[in-house]
Amino acid sequence: MLETAYWLAWSQISGIGPILLKRIEQHFGSLAEAWTASSRSLAEVEGLGTRSINVIVETRSQLDPEDLLEKHLQKNPHFWTPADPDYPRLLLETPSPPPLLYYRGQIDLRENQGIVPIIGIVGTRSPTEHGRRWTRRISTALAKHGFVVVSGMAAGIDTEAHRACMEAGGRTLAVLGTGVDIVYPSSNRQLYEQIQQQGLILSEYPAGTQPNKNNFPPRNRIIAGLARAVLIMEAPEKSGALITARYANEFCRDVYTLPNSPDVEQARGCLRLIHHGAEIIIREDELLEMLGAIPNLDTGKQLSLFESTAVKPTPELTPQLAKVLDAIASQPTPFDLIVQTTGFSAGELSGFLLQLELLELISQLPGMRYQRIG
């Protein structure tokens, strides 16, 4: 809890956002250590200028981190910080993980560990019937094949994605631009209650935070950070969903989008994404295949694209190769997560992965992800 107290305390300092805070933590090894650092030491952190350092020195002289945490927990009993082992791994690997990630609902730590794949679905608040229909179809297909759907609980596409996922018996995550105790829009009260029962509600804003237009664009980076891939179902050219797509590209996530006629305003942002390289959604089974799974219509079982029909004996491996292979799951595993798990440098790991591919023990998937064969 000590390091948690310091993540909370640092988050109270004006001008120190998630990116700077991650740099500070990496530079000093812990935020508790950074709390007592001299101005000269703080100046060694990239992006910290004299003005910011003065604000840090002034603010921390007025705060007691442990007392602050005790008071904060009274209204915000449930949250993770990057110091917590249960903090979502994929989100932690982004350049701007939320210092505090509040939650409400049903936790599944397999999601946080990257074992269960999460797919983001976002789009306009004013979708066409085409957009609604396809969002329901895609969300249903994903839910039936073991994917978790994450969205922003906004009106329109987000609402359709959450509802269809739960109606299909799946699990969904909602990332809010308010506190986790605030329902926005208010028309989604029933949806909010249902997600609490069947999924999880997340926010980087403390309890009581009311809707503010400045809070929603940063919220989109959390959706992109949690997801293995992001689907943009419908988006005008100035849509917030395109912000999510931009973050997805920055975080090396795959982006898929639904086409429609350029005469349809809600499709023009999607067509722009296609022009810049986004994958096109044409059929559910093709999308599932691109995401690393295909449906078995007889059994409903999720099958790996690279599942072997016969179990081959694992050849004798060097300790390094065995360590890398152990870090790769049967589900697609991101490159950054393998680096974190094994401790190898990116250069070393790339060589080991190539050897395992040549041995036909793993396969590389889009978005720098790897999957175990057999």
* Overall average residue pLDDT: 90
Number of strands: 14
Helical residue percent band: 40-55%
For the record, the CATH class of the largest domain is Alpha Beta
Number of helices: 18
Determine the strand fraction and express it as a percent band.
5-15%
Report the C-alpha radius of gyration, rounded: 22 Å
Tell me the major beta sheet.
9 strands, mixed
CATH architecture of the largest domain: 3-Layer(aba) Sandwich
Structural class designation: alpha/beta
Q: Which regions contain 5 or more consecutive residues with pLDDT less than 50?
A: 293-312
Structural domains: how many:
3
Name the shape in a single word: globular
Distance between the termini: 41 Å
Instruction: Please state how the strands of the largest beta sheet are arranged side by side.
Output: 1-2-6-5-4-3-7-8-9
CATH topology annotation of the largest domain: Rossmann fold
